[in-house]
Amino acid sequence: MNEVSPIASSKHVAFDAERLRRDFPALHQDVHGKPLVYLDSAATSLKPQSVIDAVDEVYAKDCANIHRAVHLLSQRATVRYEEAREKVRTFLNAARNTEVVFTRGTTEAINLVAQSWGRSSLREGDEILVTELEHHSNIVPWQMLCQQTGAKLVVVPMTDRGEILREHFEQKLSERTRLVAMAHVSNALGTLLPVPELIALAHERGALVLLDGAQAVSHVDVDVRALDCDFYAFSGHKLYGPTGIGVLYGKERLLDGMPPYQGGGDMIRSVTFEETIYNELPYKFEAGTPNIAGAIGLGAAIDYVLSFDAGLVHAHENAVLRYANEALGAIAGLRLVGTAPGKVAALSFLMDSAHPHDIGTIVDSEGVAIRTGHHCAQPVMEHFGIAATARASLGMYNTTEDIDALVSALQKVQELFG
Ligand SMILES: Cc1ncc(COP(=O)(O)O)c(C=O)c1O
């Protein structure tokens, strides 16, 4: 059960995981004849009814293109889209709305920085620092950029617990490091990186820092000004919002100096065959019709998340994670992969008796949804000399009863394969 007492503060609704579960319609279904237990929020989180309603309402009522027409529907859609940008700004504590660019997701946000800032700024021999625990989305765009510019990708190794240590990071920083691109939280292992001190070190060497916040935004407080990161990328669908929408935060002076990423409508002020003058920030980076409903849905997701006291939500998730660590740790023949202190919301594991894919299939037949595979982090798998893990990951709606259901499903796996 929820181990954290549901205390209400004046501006927040009380946090009560049991009650909150009613807000998520997808939780209330049977799969394979069993009640669904959803432990795959690191892949995508479920959506509360308020987000589903917000998206629905765009198509039912405010279905128009933005920034273009004088008619009322277009004006309403434009206002709601820009209100969503303001909600993102508040959520990240960015200084200005001009620093919030809507993208398709984390992947597109990182590619935008690589192709716009990177291609225009990097020279042969410059270095981009990543860590060994990155998602492919924070590796491949930099490899592509290295091929285009002659820059070099440098990798900070992780420990066998899945940590990134300050001394290893410092060893890999050099005079040629122009950018550090690192996860705020690892998707495969749940490691929370010590980003404040790593950002300070990078800045001392004159390097910029991009944080991949895909796994962090729903589990830790993010304040881009306190962190002083230069870029921050995240996806709406991992923050209880719709798919196909995400955000690139960038410091205004950096975004200002960067060339557009894509050309098209909305990113221009004027076009002739001789010359095009680009639009101001953030529109310079939002070519074409954006995901209007997605942005508005993301705004609704942020409203939902901010309606709770973040401290209580994180304490609840951490309590469920501790419970899961103990419960899974007590299963004979089960090994946790990634045991960094202070990790958040995800448990990767292996079982002696069964391959991760078999684990995933058996627990699915018991109604429990987990993820199996390399989690788009093949270098992490390589570090541990494995091809895949099973991963259970948490959202704000998970309770210790979900972990009990996972444990019984894993006992089934042992019965069948043990
Ligand atoms: C750490 C991390 N970075 C980047 C991504 C890519 O996110 P998206 O596919 O939403 O662009 C993910 C998705 O799982 C992730 O976990």
Please explain how this structure is put together.
- This protein is of the alpha/beta class and 418 residues long.
- Helix content is 38%, strand content 17%.
- The protein contains 14 helices and 17 strands.
- The chain has helices at 17-20, 49-60, 72-92, 106-121, 140-149, 166-172, 195-204, 224-227, 252-257, 292-306, 310-329, 356-365, 378-384, 400-417; strands at 30-31, 34-35, 37-38, 100-103, 127-131, 152-156, 177-183, 208-212, 231-235, 246-250, 268-271, 276-278, 334-337, 346-351, 368-369, 371-373, 389-393.
- Strands 4-10-9-8-7-5-6 form a 7-stranded mixed β-sheet, with helices on both faces. A 4-stranded antiparallel β-sheet has the order 13-14-17-16, covered by helices on one side. A two-stranded antiparallel ribbon has the order 1-2.
- Helix 11 (310-329) packs parallel to helix 14 (400-417).
- The protein starts with 16 loop residues before the first helix and ends with a helix.
- Pyridoxal-5'-phosphate is lined by residues 105-107, 135, 137-138, 183, 187, 212, 214-215, 235.
- The site of pyridoxal-5'-phosphate has 12 residues, from helix 4.
